[in-house]
Amino acid sequence: MAAVTPDLIKRLREASNAGLLDCKKALTATDGDIDAAADWLRKNGLSKAAKVADKIAAEGAIALKISDDYKKATLVEINCETDFVAKNENFKAFATEVVGYVHGANPKTIDDLKNGAINAKSYADLIAETIAKLGEKIDVRRFANYAVSGGVVNGYLHSNARVGAIVAIETAAKLEDFARDIAMHATAMKPLYLNEAAIPSEAIAKEREIAIEQLKKEGKPEAMLEKIVPGKIKKFVQDNTLEGQTFVKDDKKSVAQALNDAAKAQGASAKIVFFARFEVGEGIEKKSDDFAAEVAAQTKR
């Protein structure tokens, strides 16, 4: 059996943030293998990574990477528990490593990412080390990766790194800057869909149902409903699609119209083929602490 030295215990403690005694137990159980000992700690719920596994991570940052030739864009959401940690340099370094890996390795799913190796280190080890440094749950929630051959991609990341977007345009024109402008528009205006064709039929049906109920409550006659509802659906499409929204840099045109004009000026055509917009924590149900209820529960024990 390999000797469990103070140096081994120190190294394992720094990597796992577990107690000295627990680190010694882990190394003894794994014959001094520090990697196996780290796994032993996680399996036995003694490492920092295991202790924070069930916590809610709804803060964090969005990371963006654009290739130098504007042919590929990557957007990643990395979560942590507090905004304070999201501003930490170790968290930022982790985000940079992850977005770089996704951009280059092209994982198809989150599971592919988490089963991969980043800079010759397994994802599991890298995230465990990051959690040990920061003391909070860290999680890569989602990513979008898109490449074009005949066209351009670009993206925009807001200064607070909490919201960002990428846009891909099929075109022969030089529209890298315009693609960034559209990505900036998407971060501000929160389109739900690319265009009308991308809206699920059930979403249109639901909107139609809501419109009819609203009109009935307004006292509109039944005979008029079918004349009014199409206009409301059209407005819904305009307000909720990237192509249909009024462009933030030219309020006299829709995004699609502004793009078309920009391409025409270079003797070309253009079409948005993809966009993704991520905002930190959207859709995550955050824990709501009720201090009074907690105190009341304690007094009943």
Give a written overview of the molecule:
The chain is of the alpha+beta class and about 300 residues long. The protein folds into 3 domains: about 5-50, Ubiquitin-associated (UBA) domain (Helicase, Ruva Protein, domain 3, Orthogonal Bundle), CATH 1.10.8.10; about 60-200 and about 240-280, Tetrahydropterin Synthase, Chain A (2-Layer Sandwich); about 200-235, Orthogonal Bundle (GTP Cyclohydrolase I, Chain A, domain 1). It is about 45% helix and about 20% strand. The protein is built from 13 helices and 10 strands. It has a 3-stranded antiparallel sheet. Strands 6-7-10 form a 3-stranded antiparallel sheet, with helices on one face. Strand 8 (about 245) and strand 9 form a beta hairpin. The radius of gyration is 25 Å and the shape is elongated.
Concise account of the structure shown:
This protein has 13 helices and 10 strands.
Count of individual helical segments: 13
Instruction: Please indicate the count of domains.
Output: 3
Based on DSSP secondary structure assignment, what is the total number of beta strands?
A: 10
CATH top level class name of the largest domain: Alpha Beta
The low-confidence runs, each spanning 5 or more residues with pLDDT under 50, are 297-301
Percent range for helical residues? 40-55%
Mean pLDDT comes to 87
The CATH topology annotation of the largest domain reads as Tetrahydropterin Synthase, Chain A
Secondary-structure content class: alpha+beta
Major beta-sheet overview: 3 strands, antiparallel
CATH superfamily heading of the largest domain: Elongation factor Ts, dimerisation domain
Overall shape: it is: elongated
**What percent strand?**
15-25%
The appropriate CATH architecture of the largest domain is 2-Layer Sandwich
Global Rg? 25 Å
For the largest beta sheet, what order do the strands appear in spatially? 1-2-5
Distance between the termini: 47 Å
- Secondary-structure element pattern, one letter each: HHHHEEHHHEEHEEEHHHEEHEH
